[in-house]
From TrEMBL:
Region Disordered, annotated ranges: 1-30
GO MF term (any one): guanyl-nucleotide exchange factor activity
Name of protein: Uncharacterized protein
SUPFAM superfamilies the UniProt entry points to: Mss4-like (SSF51316)
InterPro entries referenced in this protein's UniProt entry, alphabetically: Mss4, Mss4-like_sf, Mss4/transl-control_tumour
PANTHER family reported for this sequence: GUANINE NUCLEOTIDE EXCHANGE FACTOR MSS4 (PTHR13276:SF0)
Pfam families: Mss4
Biased composition (Low complexity): 1-16
GO cellular component, one term: membrane
Keyword Translocase: no
Length: 137
């Protein structure tokens, strides 16, 4: 695990007494929590209250663009880096889940269905949200 910590205004590091055992090829994780409440950037519905995240991964993942162009047969994506993770879906205040497409499930605002704001890891069933896809309160 690297000693440099990803910089995010809504992140705080919780030191762990031991280095976690990491499998080869898995991203490094650090115990982190969100210091701000996350809200939908469209309808302002609360998605996750502060201090609900249990980990931070400073990983790049491709997420579909929040607004897709009409008349295109494929889904446009962008690389998003940095996600807060929670194991229990009930840690969210208002979240929706997409149906599985090509083995992937995404998280959207539970009120207006804007998103995706994150993804579900199919192996661990962890739910990850990207702070860059939401506003803070």
């Amino acid at each position: 695990m690297s000693s440099s910590s990803p910089s995010h205004p809504s992140a705080s590091t919780t030191p762990s007494p031991n280095q976690p055992n990491q499998s080869v090829g898995l991203p490094a994780t650090e115990a982190k929590t969100n210091e701000s409440t996350f809200v939908c950037n469209v309808c302002k519905t609360v998605i996750m209250l502060k201090n609900m995240a249990t980990e931070w991964i400073n990983e790049e993942r491709e997420l579909p663009l929040q607004r897709q162009k009409k008349g295109i047969d494929s889904t446009e994506t962008e690389v998003v880096q940095g996600y807060f993770g929670v194991k229990d879906m009930f840690a969210f205040e208002n979240i929706g889940f997409t149906r599985s497409a090509a083995g992937k499930r995404f998280l959207v605002c539970g009120e207006c269905e804007q998103g995706p704001v994150g993804f579900v890891d199919s192996e661990t069933q962890m739910n990850y949200v990207a702070p860059s896809r939401m506003d803070t309160q």
